[in-house]
């Protein structure tokens, strides 16, 4: 068996040398294979057959792994890559960088900025496409935010890099403010001990009003999806004085408590994902986030060895500015939005069995009441 593997490897190498070659040195934007001049392959081909070596009984087949992509050839028919339907394969003048571009795009840039597909007439500045001498213009389907190209609200970046429409929304948006309630029933906030915990609010504990930010200026109002990294600014300061307000939650890791920092470069990069019944789980972009400290005073830390760790939280959107006139619209006073919450969240006094409007067999159990509350109010009830 070991000898057979060696023979097959040798044959593959020999066939690459004679007929065609994958070029692992040319895969900065997209991977390509180089074809020999005498190799005739139709544009509609889904596979490229090659002999293992001249006169061999074996044949090796090149094809695209992803079913959604097609073999796409350069104008010279010397190069092939796997691109989405309708795209064309372009390269730099030196044939050193290749990319799959739309029909109305060119591959532009330089060695300093890199290369990217941009609409004809635009240049690539290392961040996005722009009119020469003017601001960033993003590829089709993206928007520019602080000179960064991002997917617009209601869309998310797919595996192939395109912005695709989401059937479901995360319910969380950058630039907006939220409170985080942990499973122990307390809101997450800053303690005068010098770090964040979920604990009872008092002279030493101020709950956090957390603004979720995709950049230092917190300007983009767009959906935050599970794969998006963001930083968190605490609008509130310390209890009993308000010192250190509008600072960032830092990147403390592996048992060190997450605390405040005025330095954006030291801010932690978080991620959040939706859970059923109105819950969310707060994690990290490159690492996980886990609890630290005793249950009655739960802190948080980034977990570098477990990037799937996250802390279950209940989110409640709150005004970032308590004096903004727009706050009048955050609550619909014409309907009782929290009737279900008040009905189930505050236990009613027990009714004597003789006065009960329903029989003992018909009375809902505690578990049913909790379930109803969760379904009725979603993110506003912590179960």
Description:
It is a single chain. With 383 residues, the chain is mostly beta strands. It has helices spanning 2-18, 339-345, 366-377, and strands spanning 20-22, 33-35, 48-51, 59-62, 70-73, 79-83, 88-91, 98-101, 105-110, 114-119, 123-124, 129-130, 136-137, 143-145, 148-150, 155-157, 163-165, 177-181, 188-191, 195-198, 205-207, 210-213, 231-234, 247-249, 260-261, 270-274, 280-284, 288-292, 298-303, 311-318. The strands form nine sheets. An eight-stranded antiparallel sheet has the order 25-24-23-22-18-30-27-26, with no helix packed on it. A five-stranded antiparallel sheet has the order 21-19-20-29-28, with no helix packed on it. Helix 2 (339-345) packs antiparallel against helix 3 (366-377). The longest helix is centred in the N-terminal third of the chain and has 17 residues, at 2-18. It is elongated. The model is unreliable at 1-19 and 339-383 (pLDDT under 50).
């Amino acid at each position: 068996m070991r000898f057979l593997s060696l023979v097959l490897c040798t044959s593959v190498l020999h066939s690459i040398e004679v007929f065609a070659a994958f070029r692992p040195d040319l895969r900065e934007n997209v991977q390509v294979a180089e074809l020999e001049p005498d190799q005739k392959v139709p544009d509609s081909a889904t596979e490229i057959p090659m002999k293992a070596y001249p006169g061999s009984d074996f044949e090796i087949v090149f094809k695209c792994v992803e079913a959604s992509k097609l073999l796409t050839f350069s104008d010279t028919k010397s190069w092939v890559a796997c691109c989405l339907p309708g795209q064309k394969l372009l390269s730099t003048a030196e044939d050193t960088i290749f990319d799959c571009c739309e029909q109305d795009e060119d591959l532009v840039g330089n060695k300093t900025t890199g290369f990217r597909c941009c609409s004809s007439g635009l240049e690539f500045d290392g961040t996005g496409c722009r009119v020469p001498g003017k601001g960033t213009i993003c590829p089709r389907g993206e928007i520019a935010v602080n000179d960064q190209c991002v997917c617009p609200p209601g869309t998310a970046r797919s595996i192939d890099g395109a912005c695709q429409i989401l059937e479901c929304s995360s319910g969380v948006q950058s630039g907006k403010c939220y409170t985080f309630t942990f499973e122990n029933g307390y809101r997450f906030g800053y303690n005068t001990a010098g770090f964040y915990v979920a604990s009872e609010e008092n002279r030493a504990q101020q709950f956090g009003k957390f603004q979720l930010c995709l950049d230092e200026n917190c300007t983009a109002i767009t959906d935050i999806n599970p794969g998006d990294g963001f930083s968190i600014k605490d609008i509130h300061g310390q209890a009993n004085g308000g010192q250190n307000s509008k600072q960032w939650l830092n990147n403390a890791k592996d048992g060190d408590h997450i605390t405040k920092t005025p330095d954006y470069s030291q801010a932690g990069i978080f991620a959040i994902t939706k859970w059923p019944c109105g819950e969310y789980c707060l994690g990290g972009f490159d690492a996980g986030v886990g609890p630290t400290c005793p249950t009655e005073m739960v802190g948080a830390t980034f977990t570098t060895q477990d990037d799937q760790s996250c802390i279950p939280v209940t989110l409640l959107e709150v005004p970032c500015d308590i004096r903004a006139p727009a706050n009048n619209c955050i609550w619909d006073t014409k309907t009782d939005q929290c009737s279900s919450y008040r009905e189930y969240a505050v236990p009613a006094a027990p009714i004597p069995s003789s006065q009960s409007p329903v029989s003992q067999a018909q009375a809902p159990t505690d578990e049913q009441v909790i379930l109803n509350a969760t379904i009725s109010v979603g993110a506003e009830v912590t179960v």
